[in-house]
Specification:
eight-stranded parallel beta sheet, binds 3-hydroxy-3-methylglutaryl-coenzyme A, binds magnesium ion, 10 strands, alpha/beta
Length: 298
């Protein structure tokens, strides 16, 4: 009934750190990513080549990419909003590019300063050029359950954006519950709709755990045969342009759930817990992670 193997895409260094009030030093980011590269994770989203005025926390994206120790079997990805971002990312040899937009007009505008229709002509040459450079391209769709500005999102809205992104050349779409409002019945409705149109292997889920429903939503997604999940070390994360958005589901909590269900990930839970605790020390605040708290008590 459930898949036997799941791939975890670690987004903590990007989604996690973009939302921290304090700027984390480049050397600390590099140390975190190097540590994550040694946990069995095969995919790490390391930073974001957006306008540094919008996300100053990740203004050092190029330095981070240049300084990390790359493992051959790990994909190091980054967010790119436009051609300027793509050029910066390609210059430091990013492995995979992630373009991003929203299913709702309100969040799309507040996050990237454009309507949905205005976004596709910006992304088209980015995707074409990235593919020409031999990179794979991932597409994020935010606010797939609800938008902080427009309210509930219909599955048809998500499908319309996904259709267009696949047509432009992305190989995988990550579906973001950006503000962590979703419950399993809503995930069921969304995936019931989308899996009629798209191959389930081309879909990933990106749950923020704002209201404690992320793991329940993961189980519902597994039931639909989804095998790719984004998560964030220590449950760090959030979108600064979505009011009330908090961290992603914690990688270590997701690992505990999956391993307990007999689903393989190839990732070492203990090493991830230790990396999460090192982040807690660095950030000097308790993390939103159950398994980090368990590790502290051991
Ligand atoms: P804009 O202001 O409309 O852009 O921003 P513009 O093209 O008019 O350019 C304005 C200025 O920005 C110019 O500089 C450009 O050079 C500069 P100026 O002439 O004023 O000095 N600029 C750049 N600089 C460096 N790198 C670039 C770049 N682009 C423009 N790539 C833009 C449009 C999209 C760039 C802006 O809105 C932006 O950067 N937004 C990013 C917002 C963001 O990063 N949000 C968080 C990530 S998304 C997320 O977290 C959701 C996700 O996790 C999934 C989920 O949870 O749902 C993925
Ligand atoms: Mg996110």
């Amino acid at each position: 009934m459930y898949p036997t193997h799941v791939q975890i895409k670690e987004v903590g260094p990007r989604d996690g750190l973009q939302n921290e009030a304090a700027f984390i030093k480049t050397a600390d980011k590099v140390r975190l990513i190097d540590r994550l590269s040694d946990t069995g994770l095969r995919y790490i989203e390391v930073s974001s080549f957006v306008n540094p005025k919008w996300i100053p926390q990740l203004a050092d994206a190029a330095d981070v990419l240049a300084q990390i120790k790359r493992e051959n079997d790990v994909t190091y990805a980054a967010l790119v909003p436009n051609m300027q971002g793509l050029e910066r990312a390609l210059a430091v040899g990013v492995d995979e590019v992630s373009v991003f937009m929203s299913a709702s007009e309100g969040h799309n505008r507040s996050n990237i300063n454009k309507s949905i229709a205005e976004t596709f002509p910006v992304l088209r040459p980015v995707i074409e050029e990235a593919l020409r450079a031999g990179k794979t391209v991932r597409g994020y769709i935010s606010t797939v359950i609800a938008c902080p500005i427009d309210g509930p999102t219909k599955p048809e809205q998500v499908r319309a954006v996904a259709d267009k992104l696949f047509e432009l050349g992305v190989s995988e779409i990550s579906l973001g519950d950006t503000i962590g409002v979703g419950v399993p019945t809503e995930v069921d409705a969304l995936l019931h709709h989308l899996t009629q149109h798209f191959d389930r292997d081309s879909l990933a889920m990106h749950f923020h755990d704002t209201r404690g429903t992320a793991l329940a939503n993961v189980v519902e997604s597994l039931r639909h045969g989804i095998t790719k999940f984004d998560s964030s070390i220590g449950g760090l994360g959030g979108c600064p342009y979505a009011k009330g958005a908090s961290g992603n589901v914690a990688t270590e909590d997701l690992l505990y759930l999956l391993h307990g269900m007999g689903i393989e990930t190839g990732v070492d839970l203990h090493k991830v817990q230790q990396a999460a605790l090192s982040m807690e020390q660095l950030l000097q605040k308790p993390l939103n992670s159950k398994l980090a708290a368990v590790a502290k008590g051991e």
